[in-house]
Amino acid sequence: MKIKTVVLAIACLMGSSWVQAAEQPHVTIYATGGTIAGASKSNIDSTDYKAGSLGVDKLIQAVPEIKQFADVSGVQIANVGSPDVNQKTLLSMTKAINKDLAKPSTHGVVVTHGTDTLEETAFFLDMTVNSDKPVVIVGAMRPATAISADGAMNLYDAVKLASVDAAKGRGAMVAMNDRISPAYYVTKTNTHAVETFAAPEQGYIGGFISGQPYFYYADTKPINKPHFDITNVTTLPKVVILYSYQDQSGELLKDAIKDGAKGIVIAGTGDGSTPSWIQDTIKQAMKDGIPVVVASRVPTGYVSTHENAIGSGFYNPQKSKIILELALAKGEKIPQIRHYFAQL
Length: 344
Ligand code: ASP
Hints:
The chain has helices at 2-14, 16-23, 56-61, 87-102, 118-128, 151-162, 251-258, 279-287, 317-329, 334-341; strands spanning 26-33, 71-80, 106-112, 135-138, 172-176, 179-182, 187-188, 197-198, 206-209, 212-215, 239-243, 263-268, 292-296, 310-311.
């Protein structure tokens, strides 16, 4: 009793900031590496730096302003360039995030990530997180050591977004360059520009002004977005992406199947088209129960249902691969798998 009185007296003496700090929303930052944690010897270098050089504590220390509105903690999941993020990382991180978000004390989570495969992780989380709480994925195009590095402001915005109630029920979101994109539709559109993440057809769902998030719409979900429970999934079946072009031979397709691929995605030309001379191989794969999804190497648009293969709908090749992996992990076969892709 006496101790409680003393604590309360100290709190009063320290003013309301102490009491407020205890009430701030908790946001966990899951760090995986990337340019946001990258460092270079030269402060004008934005190509030759080492991605994943700084740990999560350093990222948090670099933006002390976050502590004014959120109580943050960091978890180092990996510290790699994002081409090295793999299904093992995705599965273990998603499971950790699901546990974290189930705690009443966690308001939201932020994932720091390299931008090269950021859209894949964002898409995966969007379909596998079992919570309506905010999940925000963030990266940077310039390493932390660069003049005008974009990572610190992006991280501030991401944590702010994960700490507001208005961000609930919107699925996973990508916060980059003062914009909020839906993880379901976002893609990387430029190799170097800071203005790289966009959903060219569907648009941004909001943005930030002076670090304050705003939304254009009330909370909303993409039509037909599936959800996969990965609680008991320990590994994802092998799915391979092949690229189509004039003179594409069917050899790599045959090799992929021989090599044990359980599903194939082809980044086809135009509306998912592929050369006539590989049709028999595609047909045979489908007959053998190996789903072949034809997506497109064209950046935007819909891929319609194909006679020999599954048209990817609005999913690009890398997103089609993730849907296919998750459906195959559930034990689903071609007829059920078709439904994920047929959206019209
Ligand atoms: N190569 C880096 C990565 O994806 C690029 C970045 O983070 O922007 O990790």
